[in-house]
Design goal:
about 280 residues, alpha/beta, Rossmann fold, 11 strands
């Protein structure tokens, strides 16, 4: 068992609604060591809200309550916003879903990656440029000097996501949260990006939280899996034992996955009348 790096207890997220407060995340808890944790579930199950809550990125009118959010011995709930900025990026980074909406359209690629480094470290300009160039090379971008001068609209979706990964990893964080990092990419590019994240995680000894709706993907790249439904964790199991899932919701998700050797005429769908989170 690896040493616990992040401990989350009883996370609850509530938003105001026309008929009163609506709780959208209900009591999520988990421990994370320097390992790879997958959080899976359908759209709207609370996966991304959980990831953002870890970095305290949910602002009013969202109300976030926890029974504990401890990172490397630090109680994140007690930090000021200024102190929290020292944690974000430097020690916990988050790769968002789509680089088109995450990258600044009026800054060059090189300037954006350099900014992620300069915010947390006071380095000479020449060393910053060398680190940026090396980081682009590590994420397998050919001709880094040329790419550093480009703007986000001048790169492909796959290259944009590699740039996002470079930006999040250049401060060498302890935890990388990857929120649907391949959802905006072609199938042919998805495996390349995930293999890259996996390699960088192993190389730097970091922990990974991979948020996805793709069970097969999570089973391949993660050690542990949390299955979320309607804001609750309904099952927790080892990724390698995903096929032995006992909860009917997880079983339903697995059954709905199409396969190459598919012989069924109709794919099963989730039974919406079943109370999966009871």
């Amino acid at each position: 068992m690896t040493e616990t790096l992040l401990r989350l207890r009883d996370l609850r997220v509530t938003f105001p609604g026309p008929r009163g407060p609506v709780q959208v995340v209900h009591g999520v808890s988990f421990d994370l060591g320097r390992e790879r944790l997958g959080i899976v579930g359908e759209s709207g199950s609370g996966k991304s809200l959980t990831g953002r809550a870890l970095l305290r990125l949910l602002k009013p009118p969202a109300q976030v309550e926890t029974g504990g959010l401890i990172f490397d011995g630090i109680d994140l709930t007690r930090l000021s916003e200024r102190q929290m900025r020292d944690i974000r990026g430097a020690r916990i980074s988050m790769v968002m879903q789509d680089p088109k909406f995450s990258l600044n359209p009026v800054m060059t690629i090189g300037a954006q990656i350099a900014e992620a480094l300069k915010v947390h470290e006071n380095l000479p300009r020449r060393e910053v440029q060398a680190r940026v160039r090396d980081m682009l090379d590590q994420v397998r971008i050919a001709d880094p000097d040329r790419v550093m001068k480009l703007y986000p609209h001048e790169v492909s979706g796959g290259m944009g996501q590699r740039v996002m990964i470079a930006m999040m990893l250049i401060p060498q964080p302890d935890i990388l949260i990857a929120d649907e990092p391949t959802s905006a990419l072609d199938v042919s590019v998805q495996a390349q990006v995930l293999d890259l994240i996996d390699t960088m995680i192993a190389k730097n000894g970091m922990a990974l939280i991979l948020i996805s709706h793709d069970l097969e993907l999570v089973a391949r790249y993660c050690d542990l899996v949390l299955v979320m439904h309607r804001g609750r964790v309904v099952e927790e199991l080892e990724a390698g034992k995903l096929h032995t899932a006992a909860h009917p919701y997880t079983q339903g998700l697995l059954a709905a996955v199409p396969r190459m050797d598919e012989s069924r005429a109709v794919l099963p769908v989730m039974d919406r009348d079943m109370v999966y989170d009871a």
